[in-house]
Amino acid sequence: MEYYKTKIKNLFLIKFKKITDKRGFFAEIYNSNKNKKKINLNFLQQNVSFSKYKNVFRGMHFQTGNLSQDKLLMVIKGEIDDFIFDLRKNSKHVINL
After folding, report:
1. Domain that holds residue 44
2. Residue 22 pLDDT more than 90?
3. List of residues 6+ apart from 88 with CB closer than 8 A
4. Number of domains comprising the chain
5. Would the pTM count as exceeding 0.70?
6. What b/e string do you get for 28-45 counting C-beta neighbours within 10 Å, with b at 16 or more?
7. Is the distance from CB of 49 to CB of 57 less than 8 angstroms?
8. Where does the pLDDT of residue 21 fall: very low under 50, low under 70, confident under 90, or very high at 90 and above?
């Protein structure tokens, strides 16, 4: 896995390596031992969504204080627009990944 810092504090881009052969592919998308060396993640929940149609808006999420969450996003097929808004005081960042 490769880890990239972004302009927003505590926002990282993680690229995983895909091993391909005639059967398909395998990829390790998360490994807590490897991730702990780079970033501190504590996943308590994983969700999967599937959209039948193009241009589906899934919603906006906002957490503060002890309710803040780590988010791991993975696109299996196709592409997405994922927008991150840093609402912390004095932040000047809006990033479209």
Report:
1. 1-97
2. yes
3. 9
4. 1
5. no
6. eeeeeeebeeeeeeeeee
7. no
8. very high
